[in-house]
Design goal:
This is Replication-relaxation family protein. InterPro entries: Replic_Relax. It holds the Pfam family Replic_Relax. This protein is an alpha+beta fold and about 325 residues long. It folds into two domains: about 160 residues, Orthogonal Bundle (Arc Repressor Mutant, subunit A), CATH 1.10.10; about 140 residues, Trna Endonuclease, Chain: A, domain 1. Helices cover about 50% and strands about 15% of the residues. The chain is built from 14 helices and ten strands. The strands form three sheets. A five-stranded mixed beta sheet has the order 4-7-8-9-10. Helix 13 links the parallel strand 9 and strand 10. Helix 11 packs parallel to helix 13. The longest helix is centred in the N-terminal third of the chain and has 28 residues. It is globular, with a radius of gyration of 23 Å. It starts with a helix and ends with a helix. The N terminus is likely disordered.
C-alpha cells in the first residue's frame, strides 16, 4: 500500500501543466536551474555545500547554548535534514520534467554479481528539454542563441571537462564575487564562439566571462595538450596554435569587445610553474608582449592580475 501511495504521488506531480510547473518554482529552484544551465552538468554531491549550507545555529535555536555532545548531535541532525531537503528538490524537479539524472555505471552491468561492486556511481544532473526552454525564457535568451538539446546531450561525452569549467563559474559566483559589490554586473557564457568579421575565422573558448564591458575568453587547461607541436605536425592541436588562432580572430575583428578581450588560461592541475611560464612565453611571442593573455592556476589570481594591469599608467 505504501508503494502504491508513492506512485500516486508521483503521478500527481507529473500531472502539473507547464504553467503550473513554472508558477510553483521557488527562488531556490530558479537559482539551481539557472546555475545548471550555465554549468551544463552538475554533480549531486557538490550541491549541498552550495545550496543547502544552513548552519545548525540557523535552524536550532538552542544550539548555541547546548553542550558539546548535544551540538554534535544537532550537527548530524542538520546534515541529514539538509540532505533530505536536497533530495526532495531533486525529486520534485525531475518529476515535473525539468531535470534529468544519471548515476548508472555501464561497465558494471556486464560483470557477474559476485564481482560487481555497484551499479550506481556518481549522480549527475542535467536540464531536460523543458528545463532548457523554461530557463531560456527566464534569461530572455533570443531564439537564435537557444541551445539545442541534442548538442547539450552530446556534451555528456566530455562531462568531466565541462564539469571542471562549471566549477570555475560556481567558484566565481559563490566565493569570489559573493561579497564584492564592484562585480555585481557579470555574466558567464559557456561554449560560445567568437569570430572575425564575416566569420572568416572563429574560435570557441571553454567559456566567456563578462565583467561590465570587459570580456575574458576562458580556456581550461588540464595539462594534457602540449604547448607546442612538432613542426611536422603543425596543424594539430596545441596551446600555441590555439593562441595563434585567438590572435588572428581578434586582429581581424572590428568588434571592440573581441579586440579588447583578454584570454584567461586556467590550469588548476599545474604541479609546477614551468607549464605556466611556458604558456605565458608562447603567448608573449604571439601577442608581441601585449598583455592579452593571463595564465594562472585559478580565476581569482587572474582577476587580481587583470586589476593590477589596469591600474598601471
Amino acid at each position: 500500500m505504501k508503494n502504491s501511495t508513492n506512485r500516486d504521488g508521483i503521478e500527481k506531480l507529473n500531472e502539473y501543466t507547464l504553467g503550473e510547473t513554472i508558477d510553483l518554482l521557488t527562488e531556490m529552484d530558479w537559482t539551481f536551474l539557472v546555475d545548471l544551465y550555465k554549468c551544463r552538468c552538475m554533480k549531486k554531491d557538490y550541491m549541498i555545500d552550495i545550496y543547502f549550507n544552513e548552519s545548525p545555529e540557523q535552524f536550532y535555536k538552542h544550539y548555541a547554548v547546548s553542550d558539546e555532545l548535544t551540538q554534535k548531535q544537532l550537527e548530524e541532525k542538520n546534515k541529514k535534514r539538509l540532505s533530505d531537503k536536497m533530495d526532495r528538490m531533486i525529486r520534485k524537479l525531475k518529476s515535473r520534467g525539468l531535470i534529468e539524472t544519471s548515476s548508472m555505471v555501464p561497465d558494471s552491468l556486464s560483470k557477474p554479481n559476485h564481482v560487481r561492486k555497484t551499479l550506481r556511481g556518481i549522480s549527475w544532473l542535467y536540464l531536460s528539454f523543458r528545463g532548457l526552454r523554461i530557463v531560456e525564457k527566464r534569461l530572455d535568451i533570443p531564439d537564435e542563441a537557444k541551445l539545442s538539446k541534442n548538442e547539450v546531450d552530446m556534451e555528456r561525452v566530455k562531462k568531466d571537462h565541462f564539469w571542471e569549467i562549471a566549477k570555475l563559474y560556481l567558484n566565481l559566483k559563490y566565493d569570489i564575487f559573493k561579497d564584492l559589490k564592484q562585480f555585481d554586473h557579470w555574466d558567464w557564457y559557456p561554449s560560445e564562439t567568437i569570430a572575425a568579421d564575416n566569420e572568416t575565422m572563429i574560435v570557441r573558448p571553454d567559456a566567456i566571462l563578462r565583467l561590465e564591458d570587459q570580456f575574458f575568453f576562458i580556456e581550461l587547461d588540464r595539462s594534457t595538450e602540449p604547448v607546442y607541436r612538432s613542426p611536422l605536425q603543425s596543424d594539430q592541436v596545441s596551446i600555441h596554435n590555439k593562441l595563434k588562432r585567438y590572435f588572428d580572430v581578434m586582429r581581424l575583428s572590428t568588434n571592440e569587445y573581441i579586440r579588447e578581450g583578454y584570454i584567461a588560461i586556467v590550469i588548476p592541475t599545474a604541479r609546477f610553474e614551468t607549464r605556466l611560464s611556458n604558456i605565458q612565453s608562447a603567448a608573449d611571442k604571439i601577442f608581441q608582449k601585449s598583455p592579452r593573455v593571463i595564465v594562472s592556476k585559478n580565476m581569482e589570481d587572474i582577476l587580481i592580475r587583470f586589476s593590477d594591469m589596469k591600474k598601471q599608467p
